[in-house]
């Protein structure tokens, strides 16, 4: 009897232990299931409550830990395959401009509505390290056979895809991109753009809170993602969130650029919800090329900048520098030196015009010369005459000697070995007498021009060497002797500000290691 009682008690203990174990298992399973659900959905829940400055609250550090098969750029040629809508499409031209400016090799194809893809493999090596689609819908809606071939190539050779989606009058307000587990909302206006600081794409782009305000256009697309395989890169708020389906909170942040981490199908992609007109999209595009090519198609972060200020002392009365202008130049130089090591303005002087202004402007000339050691100096011809107008070398030498004499009298250095000709005359096409005179009088070793081989487009400018003088490709900033007044700038001050803040001048520095 006692044996049966013991067996009964042992059985009870076993049942209790099993029940306890089951309960613990259920609790643990529920915990991980909840966390998995939460990780996939907390973006949409939290993003409606945060501002751009609160992005550290978003859960992207969790996503950084997940990676796909490492990119192996050695298995492909370093060429970008670009599928454009047409030979003259605006976005296609913008893509090509950035690739050309970055000195990256590329091949253009018209995106086929139907038909075969170009040859992707050459002697067991991939022909392309990256694929760019001007219209991501051409990629998403490709027939299954060609899509399968392209995806297989991308997986096998570790090739990424960049695509652009821009709304038009025929776009659905809300749609799911074929083959992808997310929705796209099109034809929207957006505002208050900011960057996800945890994105692994960032290289040239620096994450920071951007100024608030609306962005141009009502043809933006935003991506609604609730999956950790997709990481937002750029956020913005929708100007009219009630147009979304379902309507979103006014403070909600939506992704205008997303990074497909490749966890879904082994292919990494970066998708843009508009074109490249927005300057930040251009920066992210540059960074996406770098990241998806395994950092082989990458711009260095080093920049070497020399700011030449031609025509010192030149100009009619009322347009020349006074003491306030000179002091502002010194203050600006000190401000830039706090950010750029050894930054120094390089002043090109024409001595004939010294003290030919008003009394205030002559005082400005004197302050410049009292500050001579604060700047670098280069000769810019005594009378600002264009060298090609001098038909013999002796006349050029005479002009240069006058400018050198002026320099010696006023303590201006004469041994820097750099000169610029007025209007770049005689540098290219080459005026032989100029090069010979430069060597004789100034021992010039370096000059620059914006004319070789052509003035426009600027990205085609190159350097060359002639008679042992190195000719650097010179870039311009839109400021000339006739555009020195801010309020009178051609097109208005906003045109100059636009060039500086993400426009032509901004990208001159971004895309040129030396400028």
Automatic annotation (TrEMBL):
GO terms for molecular function: heparan sulfate N-sulfotransferase activity; hydrolase activity. It comes from the Eukaryota. It is found in: Golgi apparatus. InterPro entries: Heparan_SO4_deacetylase_dom (IPR021930), HSNSD_N (IPR056793). Residues 78-292 form the Heparan sulfate-N-deacetylase N-terminal domain. The chain crosses the membrane at residues 15-34. Residues 302-506 form the Heparan sulphate-N-deacetylase deacetylase domain. GO terms for cellular component: Golgi apparatus. Its main location: Golgi. It holds the Pfam family HSNSD-CE. Keywords: Golgi apparatus, Membrane, Transferase, Transmembrane, Transmembrane helix. This is Bifunctional heparan sulfate N-deacetylase/N-sulfotransferase 3.
């Amino acid at each position: 009897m006692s044996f049966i009682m013991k067996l009964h008690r042992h059985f009870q203990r076993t049942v209790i232990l099993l029940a306890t174990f089951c309960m613990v298992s259920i609790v643990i399973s529920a915990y991980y299931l909840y966390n998995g659900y939460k990780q996939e959905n907390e973006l949409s829940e939290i993003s409606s409550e945060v501002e751009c400055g609160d992005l550290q609250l978003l859960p992207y550090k969790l996503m950084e830990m997940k990676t796909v098969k490492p990119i192996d750029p050695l298995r492909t040629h370093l060429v970008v395959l670009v599928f454009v809508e047409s030979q003259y499409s605006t976005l296609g031209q913008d893509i090509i401009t950035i690739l050309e400016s970055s000195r990256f090799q590329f091949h253009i194809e018209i995106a086929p509505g139907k038909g075969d893809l170009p040859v992707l493999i050459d002697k067991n090596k991939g022909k392309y390290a990256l694929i760019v689609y001007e219209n991501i819908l051409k990629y998403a809606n490709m027939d299954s056979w060609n899509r399968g071939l392209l995806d297989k190539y991308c997986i096998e050779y570790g090739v990424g895809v960049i695509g652009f989606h821009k709304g038009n009058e025929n776009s659905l307000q809300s749609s799911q991109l074929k083959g992808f587990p997310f929705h796209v909302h099109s034809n929207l206006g957006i505002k208050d753009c900011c960057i996800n600081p945890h994105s692994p794409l960032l290289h040239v782009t620096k994450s920071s809170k951007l100024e608030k305000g609306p962005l141009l256009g009502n043809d933006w697309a935003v991506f609604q993602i609730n999956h950790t395989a997709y990481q937002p890169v750029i956020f913005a708020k929708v100007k009219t969130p009630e147009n979304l389906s379902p309507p979103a909170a006014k403070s909600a942040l939506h992704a205008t650029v997303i990074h497909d981490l490749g966890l879904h199908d082994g292919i990494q992609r970066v998708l843009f919800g508009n074109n490249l007109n927005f300057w930040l999209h251009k920066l992210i595009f540059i960074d996406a090329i770098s990241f998806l090519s395994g950092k082989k198609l990458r711009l260095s972060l080093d920049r070497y900048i020399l700011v030449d200020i031609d025509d010192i002392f030149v100009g009619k009365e009322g347009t020349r520098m006074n003491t306030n202008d000179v002091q502002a130049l010194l203050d600006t130089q000190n401000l830039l030196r706090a950010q750029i090591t050894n930054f120094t303005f390089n002043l090109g002087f024409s001595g004939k015009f010294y003290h030919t202004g008003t009394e205030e402007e002559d005082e400005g000339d004197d302050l410049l010369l009292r500050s001579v050691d604060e700047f670098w100096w280069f000769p810019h011809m005594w009378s600002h005459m264009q060298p090609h107008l001098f038909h013999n070398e002796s006349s050029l030498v005479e002009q240069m000697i006058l400018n050198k004499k002026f320099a010696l009298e006023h303590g201006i250095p004469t041994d820097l070995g750099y000169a610029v000709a007025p209007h770049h005359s005689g540098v290219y096409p080459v005026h032989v007498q100029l090069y010979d005179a430069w060597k004789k009088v100034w021992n010039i070793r370096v000059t620059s021009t914006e004319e070789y081989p052509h003035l426009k487009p600027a990205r085609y400018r190159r350097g060359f060497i002639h008679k042992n003088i190195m000719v650097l490709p010179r870039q311009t900033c839109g400021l000339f002797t006739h555009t020195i007044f801010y309020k009178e700038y051609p097109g208005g001050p906003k045109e100059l500000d636009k060039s500086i803040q993400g426009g032509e001048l901004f990208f001159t520095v971004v895309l040129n290691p030396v400028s």
